[in-house]
Amino acid sequence: MTTATPPRTVGRAARRTLRPTSKVLPEHARQHNRSLVLQTLFRAGPSSRADLARETGLTRVTVSDLVGDLLAEELVEELGFRVESRVGKPATLVGLRADAALTVCLDLSDESNLLGAVLDLSGTVLHRLCVPLRRRTGESAYAAVADLCRKLVAVADRPILGVGVGSPGVVDADGVVLQAPNLGWHGLELAARLSADLGLAVHVANDANAAALAEHTYGGAGGSGLMLIRVGKGLGAGLLLDGALHRGHHFAAGEIGHVVVDHRGDACACGRRGCLETLLAAPALRARIKGQDPTAAQATLASVGRRLGAALAPVVSALDLREVVLSGPADLLGGGLRDAALDELRKRTMPVVGDDLDLRMASLGADVVLAGAAVLVLSGQLGVS
Predict the structure, then answer these.
(1) pTM above the 0.70 mark?
(2) 164 strand-pairing partners
(3) Which CATH class for the 26-96 domain?
(4) Which tens digit of pLDDT belongs to each residue from 237-246?
(5) Residue 82: phi, psi to the nearest 5?
(6) Domain boundaries, given as residue ranges, for the chain
(7) What burial class does residue 55 get, using C-beta atoms within 10 Å of its C-beta: 0-12 exposed, 13-18 middle, 19+ buried?
(8) Which of 76, 165, 245, 286 has the fewest CB atoms within 10 Å, i.e. the most exposed one?
(9) Among candidates 296, 261, 264, 253, which has minimal Cα distance to 281?
């Protein structure tokens, strides 16, 4: 009798599943059931067929049939018998194979580089590439993104499940970048163009939304109210409310970077003056503290933190958020700026909202957008999150 549980199965890192936002039609039943089984394996790790039936509510016959299909596709594998203390035949465990396929993931939010990686199905980064952006915009920026994708595809040694992209700006549900002023993109059909150029499924979302998905799936985020503020070349936020990503009527939920906080402030890439992005984007923060000693730099960052707290207070109160996560350069965001922002938030909100508000750095660090891009692929291709 064998008792094997290889370390490369998926399930231990992923903690929460996204709430579905579309109803399942009868003709989608088998695909839906397949996703339920994969989701359970992704979230809970190796399980028996009986475990899967209990968790999903499906019959054992249905589960056995689906597992048989997944074994044939080599998406899952049998891992041997579970050690049982009771009498009877021990259950055979099934696990989602981390090495069954790869995802190619891009983070376009960095202030000076295009970041890319190849990940396995557990979210482990296997290969990385970094390409200088060199202030390219428009078609030149798209060409650089497509070239980076091709280089990542070339190093993949297993089937590629799909490509995930976290892009700055306003991105609709079809992967069209409606506006990304810092990259000079307006109405760019990024998902469709990359898919045609690469011959692969491509999923694109706003970088802050991707980061929020990563914190939800792999990080320590709770399941109630989360706002993730992504600080890079630009500034944006992703919102998860009651376990679902909130995009808004114009797909612009979380676009706090272009809220004007000072009409006499600096010019912004969007054409207005005094947007929050002109204070909080990474290049702006670095410019403000350039040449300052550490004490003065922290004081300057704290002053920006207070402005951020003031801007966030109405949002946190209106949505009764439990967590606000900062994602970006830790040397800029993780000290005086974070502390001052939290202090200002608590001053400007009711105690019932602000007293237990958690304002923290992203638990996934610099890879949060890449991890979120992987979630986009897993969700879009396998129904897993």
Answers:
(1) yes
(2) 105, 203
(3) mainly alpha
(4) 999 888 788 8
(5) -75, 140
(6) 26-96, 102-211+368-382, 221-362
(7) middle
(8) 286
(9) 261
